[in-house]
Amino acid sequence: MLNVLLLLAMRTISQPREAAAEILSMRPERSILWSALALAVVLNTIVYQLSLVLTPPQGPLPVMFTSPIIFAGFIGAGLILSIYSLTYAGRFIGGKANVESVMVLLIWLQFLRFAVQLAAFVLTISVPGVAGLLVLGATLYGMYLLLHFIDVAHEFNNLFTSFGALVLSGLGIMLGLAILLSMLGVQNMGLTPYV
């Protein structure tokens, strides 16, 4: 099983479109997808919290970043928001993906992200500068992979359209968060307005 996952990871890096099609062909049940999502969130939270212990920040961090439970909730909510917004933003501009297909692809990317974080954690102990470069490179390449995954899931056959879906999804998330914050009574994010 580990061999299969490693081969799929290598194929994702070298041939993202083919890897996305292979992942989509697996069609796991929704209950398995939700369990995998929860596992990805927990693993990413553990590595992040370990990195805080290994290299403590110089100043105080907001409680969202120091509390593992709040951090995991934030990551999980962000991932779920991304899944639904990418699905419906893509469909709005002619895409064909459903929630499950976007979900399986984003969860796979989260597991790859976990592998990068784990490698960066190990490198931080021995070569801190290289760890930072690895994270930066993986973030940029991760965007490239995401565009291909969106393209395959929605059957756009056009990376510019995939980029449009990504932008529209981001706008949808920002609008949704603004509405949610206003419903919760958060008007100015704690800033005192000038009168």
Spell the H/E element sequence: HHHHHHHH
Terminal Cα span: 63 Å
Percent of residues in β-strands: under 5%
Number of helices: 8
Task: Report the principal-axis shape.
Answer: globular
Number of strand elements:
0
Stretches where pLDDT is under 50 for at least 5 consecutive residues are: 189-195
Describe the largest sheet.
Answer: none
Kindly name the structural category: mainly alpha
The average pLDDT is 86
Helicity level: over 70%
Indicate the radius of gyration in whole angstroms. 18 Å
Give a quick set of tags describing it.
single chain; 0% strand; mainly alpha; 8 helices; globular; 195 residues; disordered C terminus; 81% helix
In short:
The chain has helices at about 1-15, 15-25, 30-55, 65, 70-90, 100-125, 130-155, 160-185. With about 200 residues, the chain is mainly α. The longest helix has 28 residues, at about 100-125.
Would you give an account of this structure?
The protein contains 8 helices and no strands. Helix 2 (about 15-25) crosses helix 7 and helix 3 (about 30-55) packs parallel to helix 6 (about 100-125). The model is unreliable at about 190-195 (pLDDT under 50). The protein is globular. The chain is an all-alpha fold and about 200 residues long. It has helices at about 1-15, 15-25, 30-55, 65, 70-90, 100-125, 130-155, 160-185. The termini are far apart. The protein is about 80% helix and about 0% strand.
